[in-house]
């Protein structure tokens, strides 16, 4: 068992870019060498960052997903409220059931919106190997525009280097 002094000795705080990480040293034995260090000392971090297993969703898809989750959650709350009002025999049960039906339609639209947004994003920015992908055409157009901008810049540079020798008028 470690005492407070040993615990303080084994904690090390590093500040990197405004964030702090705590490291703890562990050992296999509690015996100290003559130099004061522990024998068989092994360091391991408390916080180990692991790379994400999946890529992050694109912004438009993530926005649609958040919107869909909120709509579905509100629809479930509304449906439960309508059910409880119906069980209690309240006058609010009929309007709540009607609004629950409308909310169900909206929730279905929200979920379909996520699916459609994801498909559109994949087609425009995603996999290029698909023959129907518009990403290939967009990349071709961008390359062509960059090439034209470079050639225009080179020709302007040539004109500037040449000076005013190719001038047609003296105005």
Automatic annotation (TrEMBL):
It comes from the Bacteria. Residues 1-47, 138-171 are annotated as: Disordered. The keyword Metal-binding does not apply. Residues 1-12, 29-47, 150-159 have a biased composition (Basic and acidic residues). Keywords: Membrane, Transmembrane, Transmembrane helix. The keyword Repeat does not apply. Residues 19-28 have a biased composition (Low complexity). Residues 138-149 have a biased composition (Basic residues). This is Integral membrane protein.
């Amino acid at each position: 068992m470690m005492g407070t002094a040993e615990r303080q000795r084994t904690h090390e705080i590093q500040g990197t870019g405004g964030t702090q990480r705590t490291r703890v040293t562990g050992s296999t034995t509690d015996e100290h060498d003559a130099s004061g260090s522990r024998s068989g000392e092994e360091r391991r971090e408390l916080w180990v960052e692991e790379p994400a297993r999946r890529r992050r969703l694109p912004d438009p898809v993530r926005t649609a997903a958040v919107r869909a989750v909120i709509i579905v959650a509100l629809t479930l709350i509304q449906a439960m409220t309508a059910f409880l009002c119906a069980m209690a025999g309240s006058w609010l049960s009929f309007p709540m059931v009607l609004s629950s039906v409308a909310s169900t339609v909206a929730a279905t639209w929200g979920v379909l919106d996520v699916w459609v947004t994801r498909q559109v994003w994949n087609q425009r920015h995603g996999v290029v190997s698909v023959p129907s992908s518009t990403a290939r055409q967009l990349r071709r157009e961008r390359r062509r525009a960059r090439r034209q901008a470079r050639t225009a810049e080179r020709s302007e540079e040539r004109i500037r280097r040449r000076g005013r020798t190719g001038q047609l008028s003296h105005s």
